[in-house]
Amino acid sequence: MLPNLQAYRGSLLHFLADPAFSSDAHVYHADGLLIVADGKVQAAGNYASLHATLPAGTPVHDYRGKLLMPGFIDTHVHYPQTDMIASPADGLLPWLETYTFPTERQFEDPAHAGQVAEFFLDELLRCGTTTAMVYCTVHPQSVDAFFSASEQRGLRMVAGKVLMDRNCPEFLRDTAEGGARDTEALIQRWHKRGRALYAITPRFAPTSTDVQLHLAGELARAYPDTFIQTHVSENKAECAWVHELFPQARSYIDVYDSVGLLRPRSMYGHCIWLDETDRARMADSGAAAAICPTSNLFLGSGLFDFAAADRAGMALSLASDVGGGSSFSMLQTMNEAYKVARLKGSYLPALRMFYLATLGAARSMQLEGVIGNFATGAEADFIVLDPAATPLLARRNRAWQESGASLEELLFALALLGDDRAVAATYAAGQPVYQRAAH
Question: Where are the transmembrane segments (predicted)?
Answer without folding.
Answer: none
